[in-house]
Design brief:
Blueprint lengths: L6 H7 L1 H14 L6 H14 L3 E5 L2 H11 L7 E5 L5 H8 L3 E5 L10 H7 L4 E7 L8 H10 L3 E5 L7 E2 L2 E2 L6 E5 L13 E5 L2 H11 L20 H38 L3 H4 L6 E3 L6 E2 L5 E5 L2 H10 L16 H9 L5 H4 L3 H9 E4 L7 H11 L1
Parallel strand pairs: 2-3, 2-4, 4-5, 5-8
Antiparallel strand pairs: 1-9, 6-7, 6-11, 8-9, 10-12, 12-13
Helix pairs in contact: 2-9, 3-9, 4-5, 4-8
The structure holds pyridoxal-5'-phosphate.
The site of pyridoxal-5'-phosphate has 15 residues, from α4 and α5.
Length: about 375
């Protein structure tokens, strides 16, 4: 069976490096924080150009910590994309804030700057932009809007550590940027993990304080914080993977190119008549915007006739995922919010027609540096 993401092949490829790094931590007696975690933070800073890097327990923790550091208060509104993983909206809601759901661009699937601006009101405090599937939204526009309206910006780069926009590294666009080291991410560890990035000294201090029980001096707690930290063993795994990241990102791009060529050829070959034959109609890969490099955390296509395409994938025994089956404003947890905040009704405000449309068409295909795309394409050719 073809794996959706082949983490085991990656482990095999660098096994001796992993074993040495893991053994060194186990022998050190230092399992949380310490020199390995500090070394990773320094390397992540060098890689991205961010002045401060603070690792933590997960990407979700990182968003929560960022919101706390930026001073989110109950009833504050924060603009988030309608089409993404739940974490950004969930973290806002958890802290008593109100997520407002912005639409996406129909081709790149990234949060639309125009939609963000249309949602700004008197209670808006900030924007969480997501680097969806591995590429960045238009940060020059989003940053300009944030500046114009006096809003802070959090960059959620959980899916895009290693991506670039016009030569600038992801994880450096926000007042605070975050990433996730969940195992399936392009830079993933062997459990949960995350990191925050900022150029701002004051925010960096707040982040450290919040992530460490509100404490700078042992057993003196200035604020009520939380416990969110990266284990040394995870840091050791990440340091090995970081050494190979650029090479892996190139392999991901090559794999994406092979898929792109296949679907371009397929779309040329077939036309609308294929629909009547029950085959999938047009299948268009997520557009990568000029100036962006993607980590291809997901290789996602928009299939006009998704049902037919899924049947073909099943016939060819190719695994797939639907990222994401519903826009966030339709999730039961946010529908309830719309009822309690009638004047701020999320569903009434929401005009996220591109997000709604994308949810009906998206399909993600197997993708990592070790994915055998030729084998997948051969399988597809047999059925398409
Ligand atoms: C866009 C986005 N933000 C945040 C997260 C949360 O990261 P974690 O699973 O490390 O908490 C994810 C995880 O998939 C994500 O895709």
């Amino acid at each position: 069976m073809i794996p959706f993401i082949d983490i085991r092949a990656q482990r095999e490829a660098y096994k001796s490096e992993f074993l040495k790094a893991e053994q060194d931590v186990l022998d050190s007696g230092c399992y949380i924080g310490g020199t390995v975690v500090q070394a990773l933070e320094a390397e992540l800073g060098q890689y991205t150009g961010a002045k401060h890097v603070i690792t933590c327990g997960s990407g979700t923790d990182a968003i929560t910590i960022a919101l706390l550091a930026l001073g989110l208060e109950p009833e504050d509104e924060v603009i988030v994309p309608d089409f993404t993983f739940i974490a950004p909206a969930e973290c806002v809601m958890r802290l008593g804030g109100i997520p407002k759901f912005a639409d996406i661009d129909a081709e790149t699937l990234q949060m639309s700057a125009e939609s963000v601006e249309a949602l700004i009101g008197a209670k808006t405090r900030g924007i969480i932009a997501v680097n969806l599937f591995g590429q960045c939204p238009n940060y020059s526009k989003i940053k300009e809007i944030a500046k114009k309206h006096g809003l802070w910006l959090v960059e959620d780069s959980a899916q895009a550590f290693g991506a670039k926009q016009n030569g600038t590294s992801a994880c450096t666009f926000g007042d605070i940027s975050i990433t996730s080291f969940y195992p399936a991410k392009p830079l993933g560890c062997y459990g949960d993990g995350g990191a925050l990035f900022t150029h701002n000294d004051e925010l960096a201090q707040k982040i450290c304080l919040i992530a460490n029980h509100g404490s700078r001096t042992r057993y003196v707690h200035e604020i009520c914080g939380m416990n969110s930290r990266l284990d040394a063993i995870q840091a050791a795994v990440l340091r090995v993977k970081l050494r190979h990241l650029d090479e892996e990102l190139k392999m991901r791009c090559e794999n994406a190119r092979k898929y792109d060529d296949f679907f371009a050829e397929y779309n040329n070959r077939t036309n609308s008549s294929s629909l009547s034959k029950g085959a999938a109609a047009k299948i268009v890969p997520q557009k990568i915007e000029h100036g962006n490099t993607s980590t291809y955390a997901q290789y996602t296509v928009l299939a006009d006739n998704r049902e037919a395409f899924l049947k073909l994938l099943e016939q060819a025994q190719i695994p797939y995922c639907i990222h994401y089956p519903a826009p966030l404003h339709e999730q039961p947890c946010f529908k309830k919010l719309a009822q309690t905040h009638e004047s701020n009704s999320i569903s009434q405000d929401c005009v996220a027609s591109n997000a709604i449309e994308a949810c009906k068409k998206v399909v993600s295909l197997p993708m990592c540096a070790f994915t055998n795309v030729e084998e997948i394409i051969a399988g597809l050719k047999r059925v398409m």
